[in-house]
Amino acid sequence: SNTALFVEELLLEHFSDLIKFVKTRASEDPGSSSEKLTIAEVDTIVKDFASRWKAAIELMHKDVITSFSNFLCGMEILRARF
């Protein structure tokens, strides 16, 4: 749906590294000989998320509220985000 696409774009804008990491790892075959995960790789992504998530959520909230004059529609999108 359009709401899902909007939410995905909004999340990608703020959490692209985390989303790319999860999608890449989720699509891998566990039995394959794919590259092993390193602590440094995960550590960087986790620290970035931990330091920015609150501010990013506030920015997303502002984006949705200003993009949608219909309050109920905006709230529905905010709920779909998570």
Automatic annotation (TrEMBL):
One of its GO terms (biological process) is endocytic recycling. GO terms for molecular function: syntaxin binding. It comes from the Eukaryota. GO terms for cellular component: cytosol; GARP complex. This is Vacuolar protein sorting-associated protein.
